[in-house]
User: Fold this.
Amino acid sequence: MIRDRLTKLRGKMAEKGIDFYMVPTSDFHGSEYVDDFFKVREYFSGFTGSNGTLVVGCDMAGLWTDGRYFIQAEKELEGTGITLFRMLEEGVPDIPDFLKQNMKKGQTLGFDGRTVSCRDGKYLEKKLEGLDIRFSYEEDVAGELWQERPSLPKHEVMILPEEISGQSMEVKLSAVRNRIKAAGANYLMLSKLDDLMWLMNIRGSDVACNPVALSYGFITPEELYFFIQLEEVTDDFREYAVRNHIVIKDYKEVAEFLDGYDYEGKVLIDEGNINYALYKVLSERADCARASNPTEALKAIKNKTELSRMEEVYLEDSAVLIKFIYWLKKNVGKEKITEISAAEYLDRLRRKIDGFIDLSFPTISAYKENAAMMHYEALPESTKEIKAEGMLLVDSGGQYLGGTTDVTRTIVLGEISPEEKKHFTKVAVGMLQLSDARFLYGCTGRNLDILARQPLWDIGIDYKCGTGHGIGYILNVHEGPQSIRWRFAPGMKEAVIEEGMVISNEPGVYIEGSHGIRTENVIVANKGEKNANGQFMYFDTLTFVPIDMEAIDTAYMQPIDVERLNRYHAEVYRRTEKYLTEEERAWLKEATEPIEIQR
Amino acid sequence: MIRDRLTKLRGKMAEKGIDFYMVPTSDFHGSEYVDDFFKVREYFSGFTGSNGTLVVGCDMAGLWTDGRYFIQAEKELEGTGITLFRMLEEGVPDIPDFLKQNMKKGQTLGFDGRTVSCRDGKYLEKKLEGLDIRFSYEEDVAGELWQERPSLPKHEVMILPEEISGQSMEVKLSAVRNRIKAAGANYLMLSKLDDLMWLMNIRGSDVACNPVALSYGFITPEELYFFIQLEEVTDDFREYAVRNHIVIKDYKEVAEFLDGYDYEGKVLIDEGNINYALYKVLSERADCARASNPTEALKAIKNKTELSRMEEVYLEDSAVLIKFIYWLKKNVGKEKITEISAAEYLDRLRRKIDGFIDLSFPTISAYKENAAMMHYEALPESTKEIKAEGMLLVDSGGQYLGGTTDVTRTIVLGEISPEEKKHFTKVAVGMLQLSDARFLYGCTGRNLDILARQPLWDIGIDYKCGTGHGIGYILNVHEGPQSIRWRFAPGMKEAVIEEGMVISNEPGVYIEGSHGIRTENVIVANKGEKNANGQFMYFDTLTFVPIDMEAIDTAYMQPIDVERLNRYHAEVYRRTEKYLTEEERAWLKEATEPIEIQR
Assistant:
């Protein structure tokens, strides 16, 4: 079947003069998750994993995917004739390198330019520079061959009332227009879905876990042209559009519109957040100013309404996690629980929370050594059974009308080693030390990262990722521009931490083949004392879930660390007990009992 | 007298068509200290402070200086007709702003272009852009009017043998040439004196506290043209020059030489370290590549010989400070001691150390509230008498054949307040925490700064400067590119901390009108464990002087802080006792006695 499909694709390629055709896994907006409509790569390769790119030549086909999927991909690609390229393994070229090595001068590379980011497209251009390669990116050559292709997701958009958004679209749009002007431009092209949702105070459900509608926005000094599938437009929204000078246009027509528009002045584009096809139209037709979307920085600073709703929903979400931990500890070893069934149990609890919309990402449930893989995904055929020993790492979150949550706890289920306790304690100490930071305004995540990492660096351990990322409000669980990390790759944004920014705080230890630990709270930056030395800042915590005392070894704690842990646990109990049953409350009381430091 | 001199200067200005003439306080290399020859500003203004710039117009004259000198300058300028401009005071324009406001279109600004840095000159150009101002910078108009002007300092250069330098000039020059090539250039213009001394393994004594010779270097693929006053050239150096392909040229002829040179390829220049006059010659005559001097980064990484000699000399220097503290504590209140006489006592002790060359900077001796001024300079007419109460801050260092030292201790002389103890303890805790850091290779000073600053930020205090600077080897006490600070001004260098870099670690508290505390050790970066997580780094300490226990309040310490202090004090005693008398040793024993944390 796959072979037939590839043959058809090659036929079409020959017809169009395309020598290599590339099928990534992406929608038109670089979303973290893609709908079935966008699974063209799966259709032509049979590989069902979430990450992978297919490259088809006239006499070869290759699939690139990452370590999570090597075993699964091998199985699924069997008999298809497609070669598996194991990403990041020694000697395995990445796609640009592969193309550079295998394409001949003057050949044509095809791909649907809407599914490739501007950055990746430009990188390909640069990589293949000397080869005089033609890029054919204006057609969805592969997708059009897909018989019985699902249609684009079409879900009606929802308008957030001001008691949920906290700020009218009018006010937001005027702030954005000021920034467009300040950047010396007249227009802004927005294809970052969460930015657009934030700006317009609307939400959609076209992308799993991200409450966004597939759409584009083009902001002029007077109008906002909003490109959306017309089936998603409700009467309410039409009315809302009139009130807010929104001109509704068909999602399909964006490229044509931008191609035909009569520009007077510069268009601000964010090269990190636009697809290659639209970038090409704009850069050919208009004078472009390159800058981050001004919406991103504004969206990151949560307003009072957003913050107070998040506070509330984080408590409910924390309570659900407490219920889950209690259930797990009580039942492990008594009934059959797997990584997946545990996650499902937790997801069910979360769904009961008032205002639940979706998960904010697929729950990570990783037992024992599986937790050492930072992006572990339990698969039905290989999910581990959870026994009364070792630890389970659960990283999860929900989308609610009150906000977006994200929390990780590593839960002790029985015997664990002294080393595991040491690592667990060091992680907790670092996490609490960062949460407790007092710092001068002007600090970025680079200044603060070491507060979380130092206890691990002290023992020669590192986690190979940042310490924290921004979190949306009823939006993506990962958002910028803020980030807590000690190193920034060239071109990476480094934003000052502003009052109202919501950030995760998630140090961890990942020991391959042995165990993985992560403890993640979500914190909010606040203004503290202002004096002659400047404006001091501090963090409030949103997450209130106990840190497993069974894995704490006070030998690795200073009195201040114990004091921080006790202070946190007292708050956990005080704030969440009202959501719990008698039984759960009794358990929580014990789990949050203050401890003394070992002398 | 001053009025007469100004009249003469104005006459010359009129003759040359100069409307405003500017006299800064600088030699031709931007050195931290200037010889009498360069005190043209003092000659024309009567103001003797170390920092100040005179601006003379046809009907005005103004002197700009900083807060340290306001009182002194007022007195010294009396009757001269020169207006005092109090730098950084509200409403006081800086010089570029003043000129912008007061110069008329088409006028001429004069200054000796050798005494103005390229950066400042270019900034002036930019600031005065719209006014069509001519810059007359090729003559020392004011200096030439100075009768009985001292001659340029002329001291013979000294060649460092390899047992002191640790690396031959040949090896260094070849490394530098590789970097010139890598930067796409053929030549390097060096006017940074310490870089040139380092490269050539020579030292001079033309600048107070900096063992450097006034000179320039121009490196071609084959030669090093070395511009120096011929009186400084010894027979030994002539021989050394022949062996090392150094072409000796007269210091005075550098501009002429560069103007007449036949360039084949680019000249690397460091705009941060070249004077405006030479910059103009080069930028007009040659194709310039702008980059930091490659010598700076190479010089910052001390070789094994340098490090082992520094270790030794830091012990002797530490012992001298211990002797001083012992003497001060014993005699305070019994004999008359002033800030200046205390400094002189310490300086005398230092001079006795084998290989002593000079102080590395004028000793700062600041009593009580004077210590709150970070750059306090005790002046003979106002020096404070030291009594058996409060604290004395002493920041000092020496130049020895074994290296350059820098150390600060704040010494308790009697009753101090609980607040002073709190601040003192927090400073010590931060200093020791930074010294004890373990961190991954790749960190810069920005990642680490918070380790020293956090204890102060925790109580809403900040010191408005960096935490640490690089330190030379028998060279300048301040050198780059490394630096420990939480913020970098735009354009400021941010260097990864490399093995072998020597850095100061000097947090402090400065409470205006009350007290000032600084505790400064010098530390060396080292490679530690290398594992799958990367290359870990740590610091060794060079400075071994007790931290005054009379100002330590263990209520502000965690057990780890006490442990660090005790560990440090044990080393102080172990390493320095052999340099001390019986009496001093007995005192040191007590001063470094381990303490217990208060429960």
Chain B has 18 helices and 28 strands. The longest strand of chain B covers residues 521-531. Residues 71 and 77 of chain B are 10 Å apart (CA to CA). The mean pLDDT of chain B is 96.
